[in-house]
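Dear Dr. H.,

I hope your travels went smoothly. While you were away I took the liberty of generating a structure for the chain from your last submission, since the lab meeting agenda had it listed for discussion. I wanted you to have the full record in hand beforehand rather than looking at slides cold. The sequence, exactly as received, is reproduced here:
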Amino acid sequence: MARRTRSRRLLGAAGLTALVTGAALVPAPSSTAQGAAAGTASVTVRPDPSYEQEKFEGWGTSLVWFANATGGYPKEIREKLAKLLFGDDGLALNIARYNIGGGNAPDVKDYLRAGGAVQGWWKAPAGTTREDTDWWHADDPAAWNKDADATQRWWVGRIKDDIDHWETFSNSPPWFMTKSGYVSGGFNATEDQLKPESVDDFAAYLAGATKRLEKAEGIDVDTVDPFNEPNTNYWSTRLGADGEPVGGRQEGAHIGPELQQKVIAALAPALRKAKAGADISAMDETNPSTFAQNWNTYPQEVRDLVGQMNVHTYGTGQRTTVRDLAKAAGKPLWMSEVDGDWGDGQSFTDMRPGLGLAQRIVDDLRELEPKAWVFWQPVEDYDNMKPGGESAKGGNWGTIQLSFSCTSKDTLASCPVHTNTKFDTARNFTHYIKPGDRLIKTDDTSSAAAVTKKGDGATVVHVNSTTEARAVTVDLSKFGKVGRDATVTPVVTSADGKLDRHRAIEVSDREATFTVPAQSVTSFVVKGVSGVAKDAAELRKGHTYELTGVQSGKALTVAGNGTDLVIRSATAQAAGQQWKLRKISGDTGNRQRYVFSNPVEGKRLAVRDGAPVLESDTGPRDRATQWIMSSTGDGTWTLVNAATGRLLEVGGQATHEGASVTLWTPNSGANQRWKVAEVPDPVS
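The corresponding predicted structure, in token form, is as follows:
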């Protein structure tokens, strides 16, 4: 399916300020690079292109609820929002997720939050009530409303030339497919909301709406996700004393793992029947650990139907679990939704929300290794976020806030658009890590890095959340070529300025140092570097290594029978603890595969009958002999077996001498991580 890729011409800080505030253009401030003053805290960041991710697809957003709320607003308000979100000098988003609304029955009074009542694509006969649930048939043209959802669809038409990847998704099935009869969830939030007999209808509804959207708006939808945080306990409908619904306030549906599998199995043929060319994505779970719980129940035939894995990071544990599950499955992984507050009441100047968002992005990129990073919705309801809205102090959800109750007579003066510091710090990422770039490893947990699409430069984005200035040294020694004219240009967002571009710093001895302000996010734009240094990689072909368990502190060792694996205290040049690797796919990359062998024993590490073993290092190298290595840049690694998708681990989290080394599904445990240290070649 063809992709539309746009060329971005980004303005300097003055143009950006004018876009947000309407201010006149003024020269951007500049300053010379500063070395570390006496007593200044310092950190060195080493971007490492030897560990390179797949091409980054970009940055995105869901369109609900803001698109539903604002799609009918006066032109000047909509246009300002569109430029702030998708314009090259705004957030420059290039991915959009369209919500296929479920929709309550015609006789149900709207009780959902502002923007939350997304119109469904069905067309009910006159007089239909909540009790009428058997009238809809996917093959009946009269059952479809081709003009549905005009407000969200205005946004689709407005931004379609800016979007490289479209995804449709569902928060809830239509009311007539639910057990409760409402799209806000079941009366019991832990019971499945989708009626079992409606699985095929739900699949047909999603496929039919996707195809109708494509045809009506002239777009190609790439992926369809039938769920949103499905295996959770917070989608519920509450009725008041009069029997009318009073909450929850948004569409949502509990759909447990077993029912998820049935929906995915039904959606694949439904998409084919509708002649929609989209792949299935799944399952947009609320956090990585719940995602893993769901995914691990899917049989292989269901996993095979999923073309893309989507996860949210409202919970942050077990990111590396989902990373390794995606590598094992050989599927792209998205961080497909998150937002948060990170402050103490609504504020458009407090740096804490911007710093919190920036650190979340860094952590997601470093630990998940996603191909895309997607906002929940960058535009939030100002009225709901102001003091007395969702909380007494208000909140900082969204990077942009405006009222969701403006009218057709309003102007930007009466319906103002506000941006907070999250908008500012997000652009440090979206402007300088672009679609087609490749994220690379760093050894600093406050930094993310990428090499450019052409491979002739790099970007490091550094978050300083402390209340003190910090001298940041960018160490470029792991690049193969650092040109004589190589430079590092800091672009700083802090309380004193937004994307302030400083003078370029000449690289000296493969380093450049700049003192970043307190509570700041800085994009270091590196020019004049390329390639990978010969000694950059921690794992190199033909070298010999010792693998030490992070939890046990003991070395991976060949057992006395010459076949099994155990852990034992490290012994200098012990033959059974030496491992030589051969890279069998690619020169760099986070999904390349290795074969590990013990050079003295003349055997290789493989998986047979569900267990790791040493076997003769001859014959074909099937997938069971291949290992995918993952690292967050902290010097530790996981080893994913290419055939089973399981990780090499110390069984039962044991730490005693001779404990067995086994395989298990990824779980981010310390017993699944290994320190890798180079050692001299053994004497045979």
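Two observations you may find useful: The CA atoms of residues 160 and 219 lie 7 Å apart. The domain at 57-430 is CATH 3.20.20.80 (TIM Barrel).

With kind regards,
E. W.
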